[in-house]
Amino acid sequence: MDARSYLFAVTYTAIFVNIVIALYGIFVRPHIMKKIIALSIFGDSTYVYAIIIGFRKAEPYPVIPIMTTWEPAPEYVKNFVAKAVDPLPPALVLTAVVIGLAVMLFLVFLSIQAYRVFGTLDIRKIIRMRG
Amino acid sequence: MSQLYELIPYIVMAVSALASTVAVYLAIVERDLIKAVLYSAIQSTFYALLFYLLMVPDIVLVYVPVAVGLLSAVFIFAIKKTEKYEEVAGIPKTASAIILVLVTVFTLIAGWLLIQSHAITFEIFPSADARALAKWFLNTTLASKEWWIRTFSAMSPEAVTAIVWDYRGLDTYFETSVMYLAIIGALAIARYFEIPKKEYKEESMGMSIVGKTATKILVPMIIVVAISIGLHGHLTPGGGFQGGVTAAVAVSLMIFIFSVYFAVRYFKIYTAILLRIIGLIGIALAATIAILIALATGYHGFIFQNQPKPITPLEVGLPYEIGGNLISGTLLIFNASEFLAVFMGFAILFLLLSVPEESIMEVIRGEIE
Fold first, then answer.
1. B274 to chain A, minimum CA–CA distance in Å?
2. Residue B363 touches partner A, C-beta closer than 8 Å
3. Please, what is the average pLDDT of chain B?
4. Does B353 touch chain A if contact means CB atoms closer than 8 Å?
5. Tens of pLDDT along B206-247?
6. What angle do CA B246, B340, B267 make, to 5 degrees?
7. Which residue ranges make up each domain of chain A?
8. Is the predicted pLDDT of residue B61 greater than 70, yes or no?
9. Which residues have C-beta within 8 Å of that of residue A54, sequence separation ≥ 6?
10. If both were cysteines, with which of B10, B80, B162, B335 could B156 make a disulfide (CB 3.0 to 4.6 Å apart)?
């Protein structure tokens, strides 16, 4: 196995462990704010996976999917296509990050409102109040 | 030696991924919620480094303000308003162990499916070949002289912005409406909340003089950088989303470092809603501008059409350059409008979040009675 592949596998596995820990936090930890923090970590880890799908191996290193000239010659385009990473995952993750922030802020709003009504954010105490 | 030099990005990638795992673990087990937010911000910093090394500068520009700046600020603000500590006594040990096993199995299945779908292969890892769709996008994003490429081209050197607003523009349009709905939901929860009319006092409100002076220098610079990122979206990494969240950082600085009474001097909630609606109208206009021109002139046009298609001479579209400046047709209008919509959307949310608790309690008491 190539050293680069090995290091890339380490990255892949570390993000995998992050997803496991974040999901554990969502299901087990009782405080609502902690659940929201874990949810944001889980979302970010899935974004990293989406970006990893678009990554590729190029010599010596891939380039960003942005041309540096605006009247490209055919050889330039050929070289660019052979080296640039996939531009589709960043385009999807880009909107997902911003919409994710709006949804997170909405969740924070809801939990502050729950605190105003219930006086606590511990999910076990809220369940005991039955509504 | 040169081999080692080529390995450096991959080594940094692996090390920052491992460090982010440590930060995630600390963020989840920490009882003090403020500290948990700080650990999560550290994790976000390492992720930003990962995104940079994975060669996606667009995501770095949007991810750093969102995850390191805005989200951490909002979490700390919410935690200060509610509880500071998490009660951990009484979590059943066996149940949490079972959940951990279930979660691990679920994630293993998901990762295995990812490998099975040939999105990632372990033999050559990462793959040296790009997907056919990616090659097509990279080939057509900025056309040379050939007419068959010009037919599909967005005429922008920035492939990501071209996909966001041209190739998959309808996607982005509906994602923007999802964001709009989230903000409408927050506005509906806070329907009678109002920022009380109070004079801003320099000496008694906000943080110390050091923070205030630094912020006074920083805020104009942040706004300028944000506008630059937003309006150059079709040329360099950036665009409306990135510029909008960067500008929202300036609003959050003004609210959290000075106070909300200082921020409402410059814009009120209703002004922000109005500007946001102007941004959304701009997006709708840019989406339909080709068809409007076509209706006025008697030619053909489509929704979300950017460039005129040379294959059918009866079609209209926007020019990709004006006087030698590349504007990529509708992409510039889309970026400017989205900048306004995102900026003002988050400004509304921050203003609502910073309404003082006493005036909210009065509203809630009034609703109950």
1. 18
2. no
3. 86
4. yes
5. 788 898 999 999 999 999 999 999 999 888 898 899 999 999
6. 85
7. 3-128
8. yes
9. A85, A86, A87, A88, A89, A90, B54, B56, B134
10. B162
Mutate to test the interface with B, among A26, A41, A80 (most CBs of B within 10 A): A41
pLDDT higher for B98 or B152?
B98
CA pair distance B15, B319, nearest whole angstrom: 47
Per residue in B254-279, pLDDT tens?
888 888 888 888 878 888 889 999 99
Q: Please report the pLDDT score of residue B220 as a whole number.
A: 94
| CB contact (8 A) between residue A10 and residue B126 | no
Q: What is the pLDDT of residue A129?
A: 84
% of chain B surpassing 70 pLDDT: 95
Closest CA in chain A for residue B63: A97
What's the rounded Cα separation, in Å, for the pair B141 and A94? 18
| Residue ranges of B 106-145 with Cβ closer than 8 A to chain A | 106-107, 111, 114, 119-120, 122, 124-131, 133-135, 137-139, 141-142, 144
Mean pLDDT over the full length of chain A: 88
**What's the DSSP call for residue B70?**
I
Whether the model clears a pTM of 0.80, i.e. scores above it, the answer is yes
* DSSP H/E element including B355: none
Cβ within 8 Å of residue A12, ≥6 positions away: A52, B120
Out of A11, A40, A47, whose CB is closest to B40? A40
Q: Which of residues 247-306 of B touch A (CB under 8 A)?
A: none
Enumerate the residues of chain B whose CB falls inside 8 A of the CB of residue A115. Answer: 81-83
Residue whose entry in the numeric block shows the structure tokens 């678009």: A54
Q: Are B123 and B101 in contact (CB under 8 A)?
A: no
Locate the domains of chain B by residue range.
130-369
B187 neighbors B352 (Cβ within 8 angstroms): yes
Q: Which two tokens stand for residue B163?
A: 């996909």
Q: Which of residues 86-105 of B touch A (CB under 8 A)?
A: 86-88, 90-91, 95-96, 99-100, 103-104
Helices assigned H by DSSP within chain B: 2-29, 33-53, 57-63, 71-81, 93-116, 132-140, 147-152, 159-162, 169-189, 209-231, 240-253, 260-266, 269-297, 330-353, 357-368
Statement: residue B1 has pLDDT above 70: no
What are the CA-CA distances from residue B328 to residues A90, B123, B166, B211 (Å)?
20, 40, 10, 41
Confidence band for A36, pLDDT divided at 50, 70 and 90: very high
* Residue in A30, A48, A101 nearest the CB of B87: A30
Structure tokens at B321: 């350059």
Q: CB within 8 A of B212, min separation 6: which ones?
A: B206, B257, B258
Q: Which of B9, B111, B163 sits opposite A88 (nearest CB)?
A: B163
Q: Which contiguous run of DSSP H or E holds residue B325?
A: strand B325-326
The answer to whether residues A44 and B45 touch, using CB atoms and an 8 Å cutoff, is: no
